[in-house]
Amino acid sequence: MRHRSALLLFVFLTLVVAPSWSRTVEDSAGRRVEIPDSIERVYAAGPPASILIYILAPDRLTGWPRAPKPYERPYLAPEYRDLPETGRLTGRGSTANLEVLLRTRPDLIIDFGSINDTYVSLADRVQSQTGIPYLLIDGRFDNTPVALRLVGDLLGVDARGEELAGYAEALFKDLDTALDGVPESQRPRVYMARGPDGQETGLKGSINTEIIERAGGRNVADPGQASIRRGIVRSSIEQVIAVDPDTIVTWDENFYRRVWDDPLWAGITAVRSKRVYFSPTAPFGWIDRPPSLNRLMGLKWLSGVFFPDRFPHDLRAETRRFYNLFYHVDLDDADLERLIGWAQQRPAN
Predict the structure, then answer these.
(1) What's the predicted TM-score (pTM) here?
(2) Nearest to 215 by CA among 138, 145, 132, 313
């Protein structure tokens, strides 16, 4: 009863001090949401949204859904490394509650990622219970420039939104131009290995694995057009052997260390040809984890992995540029080497 009373008090105070609404915005789910003219504090509903807000306007972010780990901290601007951990409203393992949300006193809640009925229902419920406007923004690659311009406008950082949208558009155009005419048969067959045993993966069509196709590869975890299954699944080693990928990407250090000597994986083409690649993970994963704007750097890297002759990137120079532009940090040589050293290593034998 005490917790319920506290929650009601939080809601009352929020509604009393809420600013006057000045405009209506239509989000990616087609919801029309009234938002205040001045937005100073934004609550990220999940990790993808926190990255979007941090990249565009870090001073508006109320906190991290998950506090940065020690190895991630050097790759974030110092003044934002110690923002409080606020938990997540959405996705697997939701940890936030409305009392925590209201304590942060946000002017706006943003979720960035997949759009479906579950997320719409949650947004409507939270908005109704708290009185705080809640926007759903499509986080798929194709919507990236639109999302950056929209949120940049909402937060009053239009020029920055336009600059980053232009970066994304140029990257997509370069990819499309370089891959034009490459037949399906000449594109790598890719398996995304998640977890220490590598047997968790993302199905084709999932936001978690769309980077594979966008970089020019083919996801071997393809359930077929008739299937409605999408997202993260467990696969057996027999299934991986059957599809026999010629390229494997992972961000799990334990799997990457073990796969070269694991007899279960030894006969797979990707392992025999030493085409297992480790993705950098700080401050956010390059290929997923979470699926947000961090994947733009992953596209630069992965397209070079798949087609080194078509994308002869200077990975060190591109990484420095991206981290400065998107993450507000200048990488020194030691931080850069710790970040991408494994991404360029291959086993000696």
Answers:
(1) 0.92
(2) 313
